[in-house]
Amino acid sequence: MSSELPCKCDPESGANPDTLTRNVELVQSDLRNLHDTVDIICQHLDLSRPKTLVVDRGKDRENIPVSGEPDREESEGCEVSPPDSPSAVHAPIDTFLDIAKFGSPKSVESPPGRRASRATHGDDLITKGIVSLAVAEQLLHRYFSRLDHYLYGICSEHHDLHQLRTTSPILLAAICTVSALHDP
Predict the structure, then answer these.
(1) Domain parsing of the chain, residue ranges
(2) Looking at the record, which segments are called Disordered (predicted)?
(3) What percent of the chain is modeled with pLDDT above 90?
(4) Helix count (H) and strand count (E) of the chain?
């Protein structure tokens, strides 16, 4: 695995190349686990599956450990992820997953005509009855007036509810979700 990401450490810096290689392997393992989880979610929601990871192309995925648990004897000195604590904050992911069920993200592989027709067929959270039109307008207003500037204005071209509903129902769901999570 170390041949996939060349080591660019300075031998005089005191960094151990073996430790760096092990850390790269741990990050790759974590990335594989995340990719596998996204794959399972896509299968469950009947969405198109994610592309194969670049590091796994040409390899048999059955031989790759996906448990994410490193050998304890090799990494006894550091902890990859902090343990759960009673004070840990848990995001309400179930609500977001319920909202996200209305459609798959726009694919660059699908023709633009299909993407536009998909968006105009009412596959958004308002037509599904998850959020009312009035609540969606309120959430969008709150997001654009209070939160969008924190994300460098990434929604600068989408300020209209109708435009968001037709061009990017997933962005509409994300904006409504973020705005609702920041509701005082």
Answers:
(1) 21-50, 133-182
(2) 56-88
(3) 4
(4) 6, 0
